[in-house]
Structure formats: C-alpha cells, structure tokens
Design goal:
Layout lengths: L9 H11 L3 H14 L8 H7 L8 H9 L3 H13 L6 H20 L5 H8 L6 H10 L2 H18 L9 H12 L1
Helix pairs in contact: 4-5, 5-10, 6-8, 6-9, 9-10
Length: about 180
C-alpha cells in the first residue's frame, strides 16, 4: 500500500488480517479494489474498509476481545449474536483461538514485574498499541481468573469440535463462552 501511495492505520491493517486471514492473494485482491475506488493518498481506515470491503469494524474478533477485556457484556453479547448469525464469516474456532492467545498473554502479563508499555510489548511480542488493552484486562481478570478462562476456552474448543457437546450451534457455544468468561 505504501508503495502505491496509500497509508493505512494500524487498526485497519489488523482488521484486514483478522477478517481475510493469511491468504495473501485475497488480501491483495481486496487492496486492489480499494486502490481503484480511492484517490491516491487516502488513508485506509477501518471505516474505509467497512464501506468498500464490507468488513464490520464493530463486529469482529478484535472488538470482541476488547469488549471481553473491558468486561463490556452488552457489546460482547451484541458481537457474539452477530457472529452466531454469520457463522461462515466468523468461525468459532478462530474466535476461541484468538481469545486463548489473548488470555495466555494476559497470564504472562500478570507474571511480569515491569508493566511499562515497552517491556510489556517486548515480553508479549505485541505492538505497543495493544498494551492498554492488557492493562485494562489485567484489572478485570486476576491471574487466577485468567487461568480459569484459559481452561474454559480449551473446554469450549473441544465442544466446538463436537466432543462432549452433541450438535451445539455456534451461537450456543458463544453464549456459553461469554457466561463462563464474564
């Protein structure tokens, strides 16, 4: 994008990767579409992506993770409902995987002696932009609670694969996930 004269916000790049995955040809095709409809120099933001690619900036795993970290049950429920209505665009296994990574990193955060943004970003191997999310989540989830959440996520991952939960819908699994986590 930079070589074509299109700056992109960090949040927009994460939104693209989260929604489109790691399929570089798919990402390339979507970005080519943007370069056709946008004048050169236009910054690509989550709003631009939502308008031209169709990815919702409000209903994605990135926002679900943030809502759960903030213990915003209303927003998390709204996103989970959207996911259950659009299971092909929001696979349960991807959601569980992302949340598992988040809570595993939150456990690591709790184990750090130095919670300065630079140290947290380095230790967790994350962009410094996301350190605030971990600080908020750490206030809402103790080390013990984070550990329980990781166990819940493993259990729900198995249920999502059909072990111990005969024919549960993605919506039911998401509701159970939110009840157990929050």
């Amino acid at each position: 994008l930079k070589s074509k004269g299109y700056p992109i916000s960090h949040k927009a790049s994460i939104l693209l990767v989260e929604f489109l995955g790691t399929d570089l040809s798919r990402i390339h095709n979507e970005l080519e579409k943007l370069s056709v409809v946008l004048p050169k120099g236009t910054e690509i933001t989550p709003e631009v992506i939502e308008k031209h690619i169709g990815i919702s900036k409000d209903y994605n795993n990135f926002e679900l993770k943030k809502a759960i970290g903030e213990k915003d049950i209303v927003k998390a429920t709204r996103i989970a409902t959207y996911f259950s209505q659009n299971p092909r665009d929001n696979p349960f296994v991807v959601t569980v995987s992302l949340l598992h990574t988040f809570f595993t990193q939150l456990l690591q955060y709790h184990g750090l002696n130095d919670h300065s943004p630079r140290n947290v970003a380095s230790a967790l191997r994350i962009n410094p932009y996301f350190v605030d999310e971990f600080q908020v989540a750490a206030r809402n989830y103790s080390m013990k609670k984070s550990s329980k959440v990781v166990a819940y996520l493993r259990e729900l991952d198995m249920k999502g694969k059909g072990v111990g939960a005969y024919n549960m819908s993605q919506g039911d699994l998401l509701k159970e996930l939110l009840v157990k986590i929050m």
